[in-house]
Specification:
By secondary structure, the protein is α/β, with parallel strands linked by helices. Helix content is 35%, strand content 15%. The strands form two sheets. It has a six-stranded parallel beta sheet with strand order 3-8-7-4-6-5, sandwiched between helices. A two-stranded antiparallel ribbon has the order 1-2. The protein is globular and about 65 Å long. The model has no long low-confidence stretch (mean pLDDT 85).
């Protein structure tokens, strides 16, 4: 690419492979070792997500799927109920819900629909509900929201709902995510996307180190079976039989 980030990476690579420095080894570290659905072929050590969950380094992942084509308001109601449940469970902080869409147009439409639902269910004005929802995309009109995104953990910040396209900003170090909602198939249809999005919700907040908190992945459409399989591969969920 020709954007600033791509050019910076190109310069960094030129430095690493330069004969002027003759580095003997170059090691890379990543939490998302995928190109779409393919795992990197040059991994020399792996600390899996499943191991991190078992070691209580990250939140547990609770995957819920419902294969019904419910009306929009019913879907919102289920997601909203989960959000309120998280708010009651984790009272010492402000739980966040992330909704992931396939593109900017879908994100804009979902934002409007969600704000209208919150306004109705909480009996507030559209403007009051709008203060609780943040849309994050690459569109110029949303660029200012990237700065707000860094502050959403703060209890004084009114944002409770974040809507984004596929993946969020790199280095977004927020710990209050307790529900992730893939809104469409394309929003969550590769191991890379799932690993990137799950990574935004796995960090454990200081206030709830023990017992181990959960992040809920809530998926409710007919394609959830396909997505569930990818999620389980990322989490390495297997059926284990033991005998003694």
């Amino acid at each position: 690419g020709r954007d600033k980030t791509s050019q910076s990476l190109k310069k960094w690579k030129e430095f690493l492979i330069s004969k002027n420095y003759n580095f003997k080894y170059i090691l890379g570290f990543t939490g998302t070792a995928y190109i779409k659905d393919d795992y990197f072929n040059d991994v020399i050590y792996r600390y899996s997500l499943r191991q991190a969950v078992n070691d209580k380094i990250v939140k547990m992942v609770e995957y819920i799927s419902k294969n019904d084509d419910a009306e929009l308001e019913i879907k919102f109601q289920e997601i909203y109920d989960n959000h309120i449940q998280n708010r009651n469970t984790y009272r010492r902080l402000k739980p966040l819900t992330i909704l992931i869409t396939k593109d900017i147009t879908a994100a804009k439409g979902l934002t409007t629909d969600l704000i209208e639902f919150i306004s109705k269910i909480e009996n507030t004005t559209f403007e009051e509900a709008e203060n609780k929802v943040l849309i994050v995309t690459s569109a110029n009109e949303h660029k200012a929201n990237n700065k707000i995104l860094k502050e959403v953990d703060n209890k004084n910040n009114p944002i409770e709902w974040v809507i984004s396209v596929s993946m969020l900003t790199e280095g977004w170090d927020v710990k209050n995510v307790f529900q992730i909602v893939p809104w469409e198939d394309r929003a969550f249809n590769s191991k890379l996307l799932i690993a990137q999005v799950l990574g935004r919700g796995l960090r454990i907040p200081f206030e709830y180190q023990s017992p181990q908190p959960k992040v809920r992945v809530f998926n409710h459409d007919a394609w959830s079976r396909n997505i569930r399989g990818l999620v389980e591969e990322i989490l390495e969920i297997e059926l284990k039989l033991t005998s003694s």
